[in-house]
Amino acid sequence: MTLSLILAAAAAGTAVPASGPLVTLVAGEGASQCLPDRSLCLEVPPTEDGDTTGAVLRVASSGSAPVSLTLPEFAEAQSIELWPRLIRAGGEGGANRYLFGILTGQTSMYSGGGGSASQLHLIELDTAAGTARLGEEALEVPWSGSLLIRACFSEADMKDRLEACHDSYDFGATLVAAPLGKAIFPTLSYRAVATAFPRTSRRSNDNSEGKLKRADLVRARDPACTYDRVLRYNPATSRYDMDQPAPDCSDYTTP
After folding, report:
1. pLDDT at 15
2. Edge to edge, what strands does the sheet with 33-34 contain?
3. Would you state the pLDDT for residue 116?
4. Low-confidence residues of the chain, pLDDT below 70?
5. Is 44 in a helix, a strand, or coil?
6. Closest Cα partner for 106 from 145, 138, 53?
7. CA distances (Å), 81 to each of 52, 77, 94, 154, in order?
8. DSSP designation for 48
9. Alpha-carbon distance 56 to 71, whole Å?
10. What angle do CA 46, 138, 75 make, to 5 degrees?
11. Tens of pLDDT along 234-249?
12. Are 170 and 145 in contact (CB under 8 A)?
């Protein structure tokens, strides 16, 4: 019943309770982001010239000296930033264990348009015993996408499309955590929403065929890429498993 309520809250966009395992970080000293009680602060300093190789996580926790931990290399990442939330562990051995998030991004420009996308990576962080250590990556999921693609190349196109001369595609995701159970990390609810404008447009189709109607000039959800999944932590692999495979939504998540 509790998990059903959490999933319902995710679908409705309800905020996560502050007392739950998913915590919103607050501004700390400089560019750091911290737990509300300031017992743990994290920062991912900008990399030089957009080179994400060698990016680090700076960790400052109560009772230990600040450290800089080298982050894993993220393939094709053009930008890296800290996700402004943290997931607490629970159960036996869960004290001082967390999942922090890294958002990796890519952008692409092309004639008459462009796009951007990001992915969320959850990585284990252990701050016990007076030191901080990185663990395994527990999850990677598409997080956001926004694309604008030119669709008019002549006056006839402008007329046929009622002067709506760009197709646009957007993708956004959210995570909600259920209360901690027996697993070291909580069950998560992942919701993805994809929209297209005009409502008939699909990036993988030839949208120049046919004429648009006034009723088409609205932004509408793409049901194929609007979905919910339940993620459960698997201690045998140190990763989250989806309850069923996610659809291929690269039309929205690859710029």
Report:
1. 37
2. 26-27, 33-34, 40-43, 56-61, 67-70
3. 97
4. 1-19, 49-50, 92-93, 207, 209
5. coil
6. 145
7. 10, 11, 25, 41
8. G
9. 5
10. 45
11. 999 999 999 999 999 9
12. yes
Q: Does the reported pTM lie above 0.85? A: yes
Q: How far apart are CA 242 and CA 90, in angstroms?
A: 20
User: Which tokens is 172 given?
Assistant: 């956004």
Q: Copy the structure tokens of residue 82.
A: 């800290």
Contact 50, 107 (CB under 8 A): no
Place of tokens 């982001």: 33
Instruction: Give dist(CA 92, CA 209) in Å, integer.
Output: 60
- Whole-number pLDDT of residue 131: 84
Please answer whether residues 151 and 168 qualify as being in contact, where contact means their C-beta atoms are separated by less than 8 angstroms. Answer: no
Q: What's the pLDDT tens digit per position in 125-138? A: 999 877 899 999 99
Q: Where are the domains of the chain?
A: 2-31+75-253
Kindly state the tokens that stand for 26.
């607050």
Alpha carbons 193 and 205: distance in angstroms, whole number: 20
Distance CA 140, CA 167 (A): 28
